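Translate structure to sequence.
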């Protein structure tokens, strides 16, 4: 027995809307990790506001790593579509201060 997606060359972003586990619109948490450096959190707030104009630092949780080398951020954004969420992920992962996005 095979899945419809096996061997078809589909990418993860090609999931049909009816098969998505995320309902839009909704609040969606994204974890962003980067080196502990001045301006990191502010840069992420500014970037996220391009996709969710109502986002502000009060909607962000910050957690430094145990040795203080990294800063983990959880940003909870209002997303209205899969396209918006994908675009935000691409923007975050391509940001030079970001190490990992989950």
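Result:
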């Amino acid at each position: 027995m095979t899945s419809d997606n096996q061997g078809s060359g589909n990418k993860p972003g090609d999931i049909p809307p009816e098969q998505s586990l995320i309902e839009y619109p909704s609040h969606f948490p994204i974890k962003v990790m980067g080196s502990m450096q001045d301006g990191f959190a502010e840069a992420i707030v500014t970037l996220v506001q391009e996709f969710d104009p109502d986002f502000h630092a009060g909607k962000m949780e910050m957690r430094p790593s145990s040795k203080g080398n990294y800063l983990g951020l959880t940003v909870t954004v209002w997303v209205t579509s899969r396209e918006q969420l994908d675009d935000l992920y691409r923007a975050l992962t391509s940001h030079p201060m970001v190490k990992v996005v989950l």
